[in-house]
Amino acid sequence: MNGPSAAELVGKRDLLDTEHLERAFVERLLAEAASFEEVLHRPVPVVPALRGKTVAVAFFEPSTRTRVSFELAAKRLSADVISFSAAGSSVAKGESLIDTASTLRAMGADCVVVRHGSSGAAAQIARVLDVPVVNAGDGSHQHPTQALADLYTVRKHKGDREGLRVTVVGDILHSRVARSVVTLFASVGHSLTCVGPPTLLPRFAGSWPCSFQTSLDDVLPETDVLMLLRLQFERGAGAAIGSPEEYRRRYCIDAARKDLLPKGALIMHPGPVNRGIEVSSDVLDSEKSVVTEQVSSGVAVRMAVLYLLCLGEGEPQDGGASR
Ligand code: CP
Fold it and tell me: Does the pTM of the predicted model rise above 0.90?
C-alpha cells in the first residue's frame, strides 16, 4: 500500500525551483541575505545561527562558484559541512542517487544541497528525505539560488522597482539559469526577453513568461539588465551554432555592443565564462559588469536559504515545494 512518504509526513520545506516561490518568501529571503551580507563584512564574519546543524553539499557534476559558496555559507552560519563529490565515491561502484542521499542523511545531515546533471534529481531526493533539499542545479531544469543571487545583485543597483527590461542572451535551450531567472524575475514584475540563435531557443516555450528574439542588436538599446549565458558545449551547443566565430559575430558583447546599451545598464553572467565568445575580456572587466558581485552575492543569498530552510522559517512555497 502506498502511503505518504516520510518527506510528506514531516512538513519540511525544500528549494527546488523558482516557479513555485511565493513573492513573500522571495522578499523575506532577500532581506535576510542583506543582513547576512553585513555579517560577511565584519572582522569575524561568522554567526551562530546554525550551530549544531549539519549541511551536506553533494555534487554529482562539476562546480566552482555554487559549491564553494554553499560550503562557505554553511560555515559562516556555524554549521558543520559534509562535502560530497561523486568522483571518487561509491557512485563509481553503482550506488544510486537516492541511496547516496539517504547515506548522507543517515550520517546526520540536517539539509542536503545537491547538484546533478539530470533534470529532476533534486526533486527525486526531496521526495524521500525528511530534511530540506536545495537544488544547486539539475540538468537543464533549474538553478534557483543562482537566480536569487542575480535578483539580489540587481536590487543592489536598481532598487526594488518593477518593470526593468531584462535581456537573457545565448544558450537558452540548455540553460537552467535562463529558466530560473525568467520565472523569478517575471514573478517580481520585470519584463524578460530571451535572445539567441533559433537553434538555441526552446522549441516548446509557450509557458515561458518572456518574449523571444534572434537579433541581439535590436534589443540592446532597450535593455536595463543584460544577462549573458554560457554556451554549454557539453550539452551539444557546439552543433547548434555553426561555429564559435559565427556566434561571436552575432552575440558576443564586445565594446561596440556594450555602447548600444543605455547608460546605467548592468552586464551579468552566472559563470563560468567562455571569454571572447559570449563576452570580450574588456567588457567583462568594464564598469557595467557586475559578474564578480554576482559571486559575492551568492554567499549571502545561500546563507539566507540555508538559514530559512534549516530553521523552517519563511513563507511556505506551494506546488510541491512545500512539505
Ligand atoms: N554559476 C554556476 O553555477 O557556476 P558553477 O558551475 O561554477 O557552480
Answer: yes
